Amino acid sequence: xxxxxxxxxxxxxxxxxxxxxxxxxxxxxxxxxxxxxxxxxxxxxxxxxxxxxxxxxxxxxxxxxxxxxxxxxxxxxxxxxxxxxxxxxxxxxxxxxxxxxxxxxxxxxxxxxxxxxxxxxxxxxxxxxxxxxxxxxxxxxxxxxxxxxxxxxxxxxxxxxxxxxxxxxxxxxxxxxxxxxxxxxxxxxxxxxxxxxxxxxxxxxxxxxxxxxxxxxxxxxxxxxxxxxxxxxxx
Length: 235
Description:
- This protein is an alpha+beta fold.
- Helix content is 26%, strand content 45%.
- The protein has helices at 3-33, 35-63, and strands at residues 66-71, 75-76, 81-88, 92-97, 100-106, 112-117, 123-132, 139-141, 145-149, 156-160, 165-167, 171-178, 182-186, 189-191, 198-204, 208-218, 223-232.
- A hairpin with a 6-residue loop joins strand 7 and strand 8 (139-141).
């Protein structure tokens, strides 16, 4: 027997017990106080019973099941992403990207899910899940998550110095430009990027050839790399 069937069976048993108790009470009142009192009491009890059942139904609907998203990327360079989490008391998951249903999965033997969904559009994508029971009586909507999708490598331009340049000073200033919100490293050292994507970095050269490696990476996991050589010769 499924969890949903157990839940409904327990609710039915409670209803039968309450009905029998009320029936016994009405019979006792009839035998003790007469018909008029019985009619008034029946109306009052019926009203209270209806309100109680209505309140219980709303509460049951709110706490009936659970849906959580435990793992989802905030940014990606792929049009497909992996979403995982757990559910309780639900059988079907509908996955939505930007309010469009992209996948439906039925879970019958596990409370955990791990699904690949797509296709994402370039930029921000809103992801959420709707969990449902097979009979459609209960459903729950997950929190909404924003996933940023970018498939192209970041721009990386070195404006100074030029490759194979020969300098007579050991102090070198590296200048370049990249995309906004991009991380730059020069010889594995992080470099500050300004609001317009520009960056500068000071290096101390060794005598002879110096290999300079520059990498640009973004939050989606894309990267670009350039390596050039500058030679320092004392005058």
